[in-house]
Amino acid sequence: MSRKLGILGGTGPEGSGLAYRWARAGEEIVIGSRDAQRAAEIAAQLRTRIGGSAKIEGSDNVATAAQCDVVVLTVPFSGCAALLKPLKSVWKPGTVVIDTTVPLAATVGGAATRTLGVWQGSAAEQTRELVPAGISVAAAFHNLGAELLAKDGDVDCDILVCSDDDRAKQIASELAGKIPGARAINGGKLENARIVESLTALLIGINMRYKVRSAGIRFTGLPIL
Q1: Which of 34, 117, 210, 213 is the most interior residue, by most CB within 10 Å?
Q2: Does residue 217 lie within any of the structural domains?
Q3: Per-residue pLDDT tens over the stretch 150-174
Q4: Facing residues of 104 across strands?
């Protein structure tokens, strides 16, 4: 069955990198943005880069949320609430929302190596509170850097997926598997996103100390998945 995969904040490095990887894997992508024209420009650039029959278009955030079956949230954490509140009435029933955001202190002028306290516990749990009942939320793709996504080679990173909904977890895991080199790891309940999100701040610090931009996470001792 065909589906549309929307990426809110898709004109940014993380969103456009995920759009590129998934469009290459055959997914039908809608890049969402506050600026529909900018979204259309990025979509056109990615179509040219991928070539062939790449299915990728641009739209505004509201139209993207309204038409897509799976929606990936890639905006900075500081803008999440302002983005999600006006969308409450537009979601398609049964939509799965995948939250990639991290409450880094840098989004409010602090250090990128620290996270903000979130009343709900994590950015993903805040998202669950802001979407209507019946919309499933998964947390994933926090620790996969935009620079790696923008390249053509395999990545070297496990993707922790947290959700209270089995279908949402399955879809997020499937999308992780469409990025060459990535491996989905069942991270348990959505409340565990608060741990996963904090790992991003740790990785940023490691990247800075080792003067790299590609540090990722791998879990050893697991069966081949």
Answers
A1: 34
A2: no
A3: 999 999 999 999 999 999 999 999 9
A4: 115
